[in-house]
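Much of our argument rests on the idea that a fold can be written as discrete symbols. Part of our work consisted of pairing the sequence of a single chain with a tokenised description of its backbone. No coordinates are needed to read the tokens, only the vocabulary itself. The record that follows shows the chain in one-letter code together with its fold in token form.
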Amino acid sequence: MIASVLPTYNRAPLHFVKGEGSWLIEADGRRFLDLGSGIAVNALGHAHPALVKALTEQAEKLWHVSNLYEIPQQQALADKLVAATFADTVFFTNSGTESCELAVKMARKYWYEKGLPDKVGIIAFEGSFHGRSSAGIAAAGSEKMTKGFGPILGGFRHVGWGDHDALHAAIDDTTAAILIEPVQGEGGIRPLPEVCLKGLRALCDEKGILLILDEVQCGMGRTGRLFAHEWAGIAPDIMMVAKGIGGGFPLGAVLATEAAASGMTAGTHGSTYGGNPLACAVGCAVVDHVADPEFLADVNRRAGLLRQRLEGLVAAHPEVFEGVRGTGLMLGLKCRCAPADMVAAGYATEVITVPAADKIVRLLPPLTLSEDEIAEAITRLDAAAATLAARPA
């Protein structure tokens, strides 16, 4: 008999009832150090006072009106994002996968309006993850994402991560855009080198195609800059955002230049819930904190400390780990065992991590993780690794 909740998740037997900063409290009272942040969502940790205040104050006034009307909170958040980024305009969604759908539509509509309706191709990359909608799974292209869900949305080509020759060969007269994550998350914490991101921007300019960046997981301060592409000193034409932008409240966005968004006129796209007063009130509070240069400088400082301590952890357990990779507070432990085994061992020592591809365990802690919590994280990860090292071969 099927469960009342559709059984599409392989859930851990944990029942969290409360969150406090970097900590999750289980129903039985155990306190887990959260290095997963709901998969890079709780950027300011759990129950951050500023977010609770913003949500509570707005909830007492107005929750939802739909986009048939002006929404002051939405305008305020859009203005903050435009002021802080490359973008000229913003469309608000509820999730990363909705942002992917719009990014693809926007790129194709751009060329349609230029009189090039056949210019619909999107080049994406092996190991990518762009959500689980029709466009999202087509962009990822892997059998794991697409099997059983055909016919798959057409117009996508896939090239290997770092395969420059294949990328150049994939571009033709039908290519509309290149879509890439500056740091792959689900694909195993694979940062795109700054020189490659610069090269992609130059290639798009040379070929006259759009650059779409997926910063759903690596954006909103996660790498120590407001958005990861800023490290390379370039800007996309279109960018997908979600996860951390709402600090735990469902919120996403597509940011774009005026030129890239020029085809998206009234009636070409919409959302009933996207950008509602509640979500945008919280989003404003998140941006006010995360976009602060002093806050980002502190993220970088603590990220360096965590990376240093993780390198020591790897050196202490060479039979369990191969290395550390990633950037900022988006780090991965490369495991010799199955990542699920390390995640499960962490549950036993009351520390939360997240598995990924390529035998990676992701560490995506709140950006507010303290130095004392970094020390505690290493202690708990060390104990988890010791239990794996002690297992019979």
